[in-house]
Amino acid sequence: MAVSSAAELVRVSLYRHLAETGSSLSAAELAELLDMSESDVLAAMAELAQAHHLVLDGAEVVLAHPFATRSFRFSVMGPRTLWWGGCAWDAFAIPNLVPDAPSVLVATTCPACGTPHAWTVTNEGPPDGDQVAHFLVPTSKIWPDAAHACQNQQIFCSEACVEDWLARTGNDRGYVMSLTTLWNLAAHWYEGRLDTPYERREPVLAADYFRSVGLSGPFWGP
Ligand SMILES: [Zn+2]
Ligand SMILES: [Zn+2]
Questions:
Q1: Chain CA centroid to CA 21, Å
Q2: Final residue before a domain boundary, out of 38, 64, 90
Q3: Please, are residues 94 and 85 in contact by the beta-carbon 8 Å criterion?
Q4: Residue 126, SS3?
Q5: pTM exceeds 0.85
Q6: Given 4, 42, 60, 72, which residue has the most CB atoms within 10 angstroms?
Q7: pLDDT the model gives residue 1
Q8: Closest ligand to 87 CA?
Q9: Which of 20, 42, 64 is the last residue of a domain?
Q10: Is residue 168 located within the same domain as residue 107?
């Protein structure tokens, strides 16, 4: 689904600012930067949220995947910039997306036991580590509440910690993958997002991409 040219201009400006600085722009700052009225910027942001390019809280950007503007429990430290990664998938995507950050330090804690974990994640290949990622929400259900889906794409010490967390939170098991599969999933998913124009890859239509990184079955398709 293509968005209006005003929305695309707001989108790429926000994305490039987030990539460069790790922080978002307000509607007033965007209006100033792009020489638009604030109400036109707000309308463009609403259009972008509708088309799943942004997750908003009022007029504030919460997620412009893979970037977040608050903690989703992943920090991503590049050579010059510190980002909030939107989730495990997003954190591993940032070094693959941002040309100036080919190698970053991703850090989080295990949601089950609190053990801290950190990896050097690059755009060249998966990091070492025997931790596992657990995704709770099937791809066809990520939207409309993508913040909830991201909140529940986490990295755990082990399968045992995933099981503990599921029991404690009363959630059903989603999908568990190795860090290698997580990296392969993240490597090209957001490709092109800092360019313009950009066509979103809809999770629900992305079965081929998921299959190419070894992910298939009902969790990964309609
Ligand atoms: Zn995410
Ligand atoms: Zn743990």
A1: 16
A2: 64
A3: yes
A4: coil
A5: yes
A6: 72
A7: 66
A8: 1
A9: 64
A10: yes
